[in-house]
Amino acid sequence: xxxxxxxxxxxxxxxxxxxxxxxxxxxxxxxxxxxxxxxxxxxxxxxxxxxxxxxxxxxxxxxxxxxxxxxxxxxxxxxxxxxxxxxxx
Length: 89
Ligand code: SF4
Ligand code: SF4
Hints:
20% helix; two-stranded antiparallel sheet; alpha+beta; 6 strands
């Protein structure tokens, strides 16, 4: 099963309180912006030269937290009862 098939098996209970916050001021000095490439659901995008972030489809993999070497990402799991439900592994 390829990753796109696995992602189609996910369900979300979206918490409107973001469980990940990005300090966009730090992003302005980040040349490579690895967060744009590691997120499996493309939650990080570049718009008019600035990184924008949404959390609604986050699969809680933690890749962005590891990839951001500038400490711009404040990462936590969603509150209890919210977040992703992964099916079939
Ligand atoms: S890797 Fe971190 S600092 Fe760089 S653009 Fe992404 S969130 Fe911002
Ligand atoms: S934890 Fe994973 S899925 Fe969620 S925003 Fe970060 S890289 Fe994307």
